[in-house]
Fold this protein.
Amino acid sequence: MKILVVGAGIAGSAVALMLSRSGHDVTVVDAAPEPPTGGFLLLFDSVAMEVFGQLGATSIAEQHSVPTPEISIRINGRRLTSFTWPGARLARRGALIGALSRYVAETVSMTFGRKLTGIEQRLGSVQAHYEDGSHETYDLIVGADGVNSTVRRLVIGPDDGMVYRNGRVHHWIRVPGTLAGTSRATVLLANGVQCQFFPYPDQDATLLATVIHAGDGRLEPAELLQASTDVLRRSGREYAAFIERVNAVDPDSTRITRFTQVRGERWHAPRVVLVGDAAHCIDPLSGLGAHGGLLGAAILTEELSRTPRDIWAASERYTRRTRRFVRPSQLFTAALVEASTGKGIRRYRTVVPDLVRASISYRNVRVPSASYAPHRR
Ligand SMILES: Cc1cc2nc3c(=O)[nH]c(=O)nc-3n(C[C@H](O)[C@H](O)[C@H](O)COP(=O)(O)OP(=O)(O)OC[C@H]3O[C@@H](n4cnc5c(N)ncnc54)[C@H](O)[C@@H]3O)c2cc1C
């Protein structure tokens, strides 16, 4: 089949290489002028690592990440628990995505600076329209264009009713130095605000990701920085020393995103199918975005190989299988974030049933065996 993949993020790059190795004629386009570099942090787990391995990209993933340190959680300064996440790794998001897309571009035709703006479904084919006025015909379009997917809006419909938001915003801040002089990761909860601190793997700096309930309103970066320093102040003397560093951060260097989950029932239309965040964004805070995007890409490739002449049936099976682990992950992530940024610790009890469902769904995850992986490196 002649296949267009829209988006060269983790999901798009992975599915492009898998489909190409399965014998399809694959092209990738990405609206960004070039592959990303640097960026904030991305945590990925052992399932993501297994799929990187199947792609032959183990050394790329290892080169751009380090094992996730022990994570300790404190509520109002009191230590709740510490845990390690076996097999999980921390990467600079842009650096990892950039390296993966460059690796895939060695095999698959990939063009940056080309934005998809329209899709025309025809009998027996599908046409992609680009911002530069050009158009091209394909057998299948795979929409891997992220949480604000254009492909999704064009073929499935508007975001209303499909995108779940709960009024929480994330504030992403790079702070020089490490928290309390350690290389541990720490989650501080106080005042209905959650602050996650993760040390950068490649420099003396810490990612501070603050989550706060903003409702429908808009919070300015300076107000969000103030909320983070309040949490540090309430968490004990060892953390108070970090306040000065947070205060010195230029608010314009920070980034604000809204808690967003894509919960649509349908992930495909005739000759168009969505993968990664475009289909099922879990939310960056879950640590499961790469897991979901990579596993979904492998499942879609496997299902298309089973019935190459029936894209619709393959897309239906892919959606059913992928949703089995995505939906519990979404419910658990939302419950955890809402409990930790709501009123009162007792609400944590509401998280337990979702945690149980999510754990069961992970235990049942099977990474498809890779018929598309001719070699490892
Ligand atoms: C700041 C931040 C931190 C995150 N941290 C984590 C984390 O710790 N753990 C985790 O698991 N996940 C995290 N995530 C989410 C994770 O990165 C994604 O879930 C995962 O990488 C899968 O993304 P994707 O490939 O589906 O989409 P994306 O990575 O969003 O890629 C989409 C691509 O599509 C391109 N595109 C968009 N529109 C068009 C168009 N019209 N035409 C052509 N191209 C287009 C974009 O340029 C982009 O390159 C984070 C996300 C962000 C933003």
Notes: The chain has two domains: 2-68+86-164+260-363, 168-258. The chain has a mean pLDDT of 90.
